[in-house]
Amino acid sequence: MKDDYRRTFLKGISSVTLGSIAFSGATAAAPGKGSNQGKGRSSGFPPEGITEWGDSIEIGNGEITTFSSVTPSGEPKYVGIHFSDGTFDDLPYAEDFENGDAEGRKIHGVWSKPFNLDFPENTPEPIKYAGCGWNPNGHTPIGVYNKPHFDFHYHFYEPTLVGQIAPGIIEDLPDEKIPDGYQLIEGGTIVPAMGAHLAPEDAPEFDDLNDPSDWQETLIWGAADVDGDGEYENNYVEPMITLDYFQNQLNGVEKQDIAQPEVYPKDGYYPTTYTVRELGDGGYAVVMEDFEEHSL
Prior knowledge:
Elements: H1 2-12, E1 27-28, E2 51-59, E3 62-70, E4 76-83, H2 94-98, E5 105-107, E6 110-118, E7 129-135, E8 149-155, H3 159-162, E9 168-169, E10 182-184, E11 189-190, E12 196-200, E13 217-224, E14 233-242, H4 243-249, E15 253-257, E16 268-278, E17 284-294
Parallel strand pairs: 1-6
Antiparallel strand pairs: 2-3, 3-4, 4-17, 5-6, 6-7, 7-8, 8-14, 9-11, 10-12, 12-13, 13-14, 15-16, 16-17
């Protein structure tokens, strides 16, 4: 009975659910703002000499900045999002958005602060930009992802193409495009300017749908017909990470494998692991690592 209900739930989640705070119209950081200086970059990670910094945005009492580290031989090492010390202090919440004390958007009745950040020029293909969001009350489905958390989309296509993704339904995604152990959720609903979502079949947040206490972080894959060729392709990977995980659950460096599909949408380097790192300067980083090169 529980398994039947769980399957029905995963198929029936509506288009306003998981990750559906689409980042079209999101706040865009000024290009290059974080390229020369920033707050709290003295921990030894990411490594100096091979790291370039991308866009930044001030949030809380800190700053979020993209970065990419590439070895002298041209091998990608790290592509990530860095949080300086103080980022999680004085974050805006619903009352701040309501009072006009912070800039945010109310989408489907839920407040969010969405923002897009470009990665630096040395970032390996196919990663293009980061579509991010701070969700102080989480987002739908309520009872699953309603904890305060951040969304981090590592997009494989340019913002102009992603912004043209239309609503729809993926009724059948070829098996070779479904990462190992993943499944389409939300009934295959394509969220505009984003895509459909695939989640791990064994994600703990779906085990007890009335108790979201187990949920701390999940890595999502996205799929859509981004390039207009009539076929669906995997178009991003997205760690969703709770504020509680950063502040109370994380112990040093936590590394996880990224399940892979059999085929890839573009030539380039794809991450096979990601880490959430507690840095020695009081900051944090969410990092794609262990890249493998794939061709069409």
